Amino acid sequence: MLLSFICFLFVTIFAEVGATTNECVISRCGHHGPAIRFPFWLKDSQPDHCGYPGFQLSCTEKHQTMIELPNSVKLLVKKINYKSQEIQVHDPADCLPKQLSDLNLSASPFQFKVKHDHSLQDITLLNCSLPANRGFMRQIPCSSVPGYQVYVVDSYYTLFHDYDNYDLLSCSKMYNISSVPNDIFEHFYLNWSKPICRNCEADGKRCRLKSNSTEPETECFIISKKAQGPMVGSFLLVLVVIMFYRVHCTNKLQRENQIKIEKFLEDYRALKPSRYSFADIKKITNQFQDKLGQGGYGTVYKGKLSNEVLVAVKILSNSKGNGEEFINEVRTMGRIHHVNVVRLVGFCADGFSRALIYEFLPNESLEKFIFSTTIKNRSLGWKKLQDIALGIAKGIEYLHQGCDQRILHFDIKPHNILLDHHLNPKISDFGLAKLCSKEQSTVSMTAARGTMGYIAPEVLSRNFGHVSYKSDVFSFGMLLLEMVGGRKNIDVTVDNTSQLYFPEWAYNHLDQGEELHIRIEKEGDDKIAKQLTIVGLWCIQWYPMDRPPMKAVVQMLEGEGDSLTMPPNPFASTSPT
Ligand SMILES: *[C@@H]1O[C@H](CO)[C@@H](O)[C@H](O)[C@H]1NC(C)=O
Ligand SMILES: *[C@@H]1O[C@H](CO)[C@@H](O)[C@H](O)[C@H]1NC(C)=O
Ligand SMILES: *[C@@H]1O[C@H](CO)[C@@H](O)[C@H](O)[C@H]1NC(C)=O
Ligand SMILES: *[C@@H]1O[C@H](CO)[C@@H](O)[C@H](O)[C@H]1NC(C)=O
Ligand SMILES: *[C@@H]1O[C@H](CO)[C@@H](O)[C@H](O)[C@H]1NC(C)=O
Ligand SMILES: *[C@@H]1O[C@H](CO)[C@@H](O)[C@H](O)[C@H]1NC(C)=O
Ligand SMILES: *[C@@H]1O[C@H](CO)[C@@H](O)[C@H](O)[C@H]1NC(C)=O
Ligand SMILES: *[C@@H]1O[C@H](CO)[C@@H](O)[C@H](O)[C@H]1NC(C)=O
């Protein structure tokens, strides 16, 4: 009954709002358009006092919401966020450069709003008679005419003395635009500082113009004002209202659900990797100052998205290639979230520049820890190694089972396992990954992929079986045995031939009932070493069907270890005897 009473109040509230603000009622241009209310108003159908000067909107023929800024610059409004006081806009013709020279926000209530802590930048538009696509240039196809292409560059580049080196001799400068966000050619954001309605919004109230002042001033008002008025009605009226009320409550529930979903989608969008321009990359890495590493794939720089978020930016060097590796990595990584998989924060595909932005992990790769030839003191201890092994196994299991599609990594090795502050492992480098459906038991492959020492035999030669998720299991086994051995399985620098191939040495030892006695410091160390070794030996079984799936591997690593049985000899079929 209490609930019903609350519902009743709710109905009266609604009736009240409808009655007092009829002409300023919330409206929309289209079904999915943003809700239009104060300070915005529809200039064609609402009186001036419904909104604030400079916030007039109109509806286009296609039911889109349009705002007109000074100099007749017209932009479509995609979203309005009343709480944070910002709008998302884009150009109706998708050709902003045509309007950009007229865009002057100083006479409007709006300012550019930029992402993270990026700053505004000056850009220059160039009109080039020869194609001049460079990583730092972005072509504007809509402004180009046959024989001439229009590009936009950070004005920064036009200041170089070696301007000519950029091959821009065929280009003439069209005009400069100062202080714009660097994603202006996609959709961009504008915010407003006046009127301030966010306080009202935050309190669940609404904002409106003060009715009797000469200056446009605003005040908050409570939507539920005068709610007790209609309560004087008869008992019958109350019953009728209660009925209405139930309908409204259902609506309210639906509305709440809708809000919940929208909130989720907003969060979800934030999780998805964002696209950055090359100019962004330059800013994020502070002009490529802090180099973390280099390899055949390209160079990795340390960067900063905001004060809290550190990132590793991988600039791909083979950007002249067909880009398959890049597409692979963005497509694969964009959809997965797991504590043991490194997170892709963003990417850049700007002209020929391609970059991937990952969360930054301070403790570098597992390789540095387990092959501790230079720093003897970096031993992690067996308990930690066990945790790391389990984390990696869970990450791979997730890749194999946890997503809509199965993800095969094909390059599991210590170098590709990164460690965070707490030494939690995260799988990285998905350049060789392949997607396939979960039902699919085998994968076709045109060329062997992976790194010697970790590649499963069937990947090298189809004579040994079909390529499948079991190929990752093999690589994981090799990694595990390297963690146990504390060195590369195949280590040419070891001249003691009896130790040349660690997995075989370990198998023979355990098979004869001997202990491993590797780096024993604490009680129980031997047990963990033995457990990891046995699991590793199961994983490197020669034939794919003899290897356990990752789910079983996780269980074997989580278990006590005593119950594990010795696998068959993985080397039986390879040894000449
Ligand atoms: C923008 O408009 C303001 C006021 O209308 C004017 O003073 C200013 O010169 C304009 N800026 C540009 C770049 O046109
Ligand atoms: C670029 O320059 C050419 C030659 O001067 C001219 O015909 C063309 O209109 C220019 N393009 C733009 C977008 O201004
Ligand atoms: C554009 O800006 C650059 C550098 O800020 C300057 O050197 C150049 O003269 C400007 N060009 C125009 C057309 O205003
Ligand atoms: C609008 O955004 C800019 C840049 O992101 C910021 O400096 C400014 O404080 C914002 N203004 C308001 C009123 O939020
Ligand atoms: C509003 O202004 C009118 C005329 O200026 C005045 O008669 C009226 O009392 C004012 N109302 C309020 C609430 O100030
Ligand atoms: C891992 O990195 C953190 C932060 O940089 C550091 O404090 C910690 O000592 C590192 N751990 C190891 C084992 O190097
Ligand atoms: C190695 O670690 C031990 C204790 O764990 C310490 O006493 C020793 O000083 C360390 N040696 C070096 C070279 O850091
Ligand atoms: C070689 O390995 C064997 C067996 O592990 C060991 O007994 C021997 O001392 C090692 N020799 C050298 C030179 O390390």
From TrEMBL:
Subcellular localization(s) per the UniProt record: Membrane
All copies of domain Protein kinase, residue ranges: 286-572
Membrane topology of this protein: Single-pass type I membrane protein
GO molecular function, one term: polysaccharide binding
Signal sequence segment: 1-19
Keyword Transcription: no
Annotated binding of ATP, by residue: K314
Chief site of localization: membrane
Keywords linked to the UniProt accession: ATP-binding, Glycoprotein, Kinase, Membrane, Nucleotide-binding, Serine/threonine-protein kinase, Signal, Transferase, Transmembrane, Transmembrane helix
Keyword Transmembrane recorded: yes
Database matches in PROSITE patterns: PROTEIN_KINASE_ATP, PROTEIN_KINASE_DOM, PROTEIN_KINASE_ST
InterPro entries the record matches: Kinase-like_dom_sf, LRK10/LRL21-25-like, Prot_kinase_dom, Protein_kinase_ATP_BS, Ser/Thr_kinase_AS, WAK_GUB
Cross-referenced CDD domains: STKc_IRAK
GO CC entries: membrane
Listed name of the protein: Protein kinase domain-containing protein
Taxon lineage: Eukaryota, Viridiplantae, Streptophyta, Embryophyta, Tracheophyta
